[in-house]
Amino acid sequence: MTTATEIIIAVLSLIGTFIGSYSGIRLMSYRIEQLEKKVEKHNNLVERMYKVEERTELQEEKIKVVNYRIDDLEKTKG
Questions:
Q1: pLDDT tens digit string along 2-50?
Q2: Is 1 helix (H, G, I), strand (E, B) or coil?
Q3: CA 36 to chain centre
Q4: Rounded Cα–Cα distance for residues 78 and 66 (Å)
Q5: DSSP SS3 for 78
């Protein structure tokens, strides 16, 4: 009878181990998926900021040109 009890305990332990491992794998997959989403959002933000910086530099150059033109007009008029 002890052999049957030991076998039942071993089988239940094996089932518990499989369930625990499967649950752990599922949890890790979920967490990795969530992390990938966060990284994707971050990368998207970095790309957008790069574009904003490019546009800002262009606008600053345009402002410099306009200021030079205004200075030239003031010099020729005054």
A1: 799 999 999 999 999 999 999 999 999 999 999 999 999 999 999 999 9
A2: coil
A3: 6
A4: 18
A5: coil
* Residue whose token pair is 């606008």: 59
What tokens were used for 43?
Answer: 């990368």
Burial of residue 75, with CB atoms counted within 10 A of its CB: 0-12 exposed, 13-18 middle, 19 or more buried: exposed
Integer angstrom CA distances of residue 64 from 18, 21, 68:
69, 64, 6
The pTM for the full model equals 0.59
Q: Hey, what are 74's tokens?
A: 């003031």
**CA dihedral in degrees (4, 10, 11, 15; nearest 10)?**
160
Structure tokens at 65: 């040109």
